[in-house]
Design goal:
Layout lengths: L2 E2 L8 H9 L2 H15 L6 E5 L7 H6 L3 E6 L2 H13 L6 E3 L11 E6 L10 H14 E12 L10 E8 L2 E13 L4 E11 L4 E11 L3 H9 L4 E7 L17 E8 L1
Parallel strand pairs: 1-10, 2-3, 2-5, 3-4, 5-6
Antiparallel strand pairs: 6-12, 7-8, 8-9, 9-10, 11-12
Amino acid sequence: MADILPGHIYDYPQYYDLLFGSDWKAEFRFLKQCFDKHAKRPVKRLFEPACGTGRLLIKFAEAGYAVAGNDLNPKAVEFCNARLERFGFPRTAVVGDMADFAVKKKFDAAFNMINSVRHLPNEKSAEAHLKCVAAALSKGGLYILGLHLTPTVGPRIEVEEWAARRGNLSVLSRMWSIDIDLKKRNERVGMTFDIYTPTKRQRINDEMDYRTWTAAQMKKLLSKVPEFELAETYDFVYDIDRPIVIAPTTEDVVFILRRK
């Protein structure tokens, strides 16, 4: 039987980072390709709102970019900064709200790849988030935003499972839709982390609310932020040569927004 750990999955950055950081190469390569293809300025400075553990920030720092980010969870921010410092980089992540922040020096690009924007509870906070990011970017810079849309035709993905391992540590994750209220635009999601070492098994149980977004609702949101133009859309295959056209059945979308 597993020992149940208290708190939320975000309070255990070492496990979260192992799960979500193990597949960084595809995202890293895709982001660099987006900079080259879609930015109208050289990309040297990067910002990640809701950066969490900074799983991609450290990779870009090692590649020579100047990086920074913010996140509401102090444990994740400390994990991110400690790693940056351990590898000789400045501690540039701060505790902050992705819908209410300002930067002292503008960035060339920003990214948010895995649904974090859906934690924002309403239209007002989502618009505020995009306005903050737009204000943080120089003209011609990019905001690369990935999220799951709610399809209006056909089935949707209701369960996702994946695993990662490092040495003697293994983490298995399961995420599922508990219920969805399209009128209130809220999806209740359950998530478990099962953590295995040679001597023990532990589990983290969590639930969280995600705001739902259809393609039409995202289009309306983007229209409220004229600072951005939509340069392209992709899916989570991250194939720079295969942009997508969003259809009623589409779920995984990466929006390439360019600062006017």
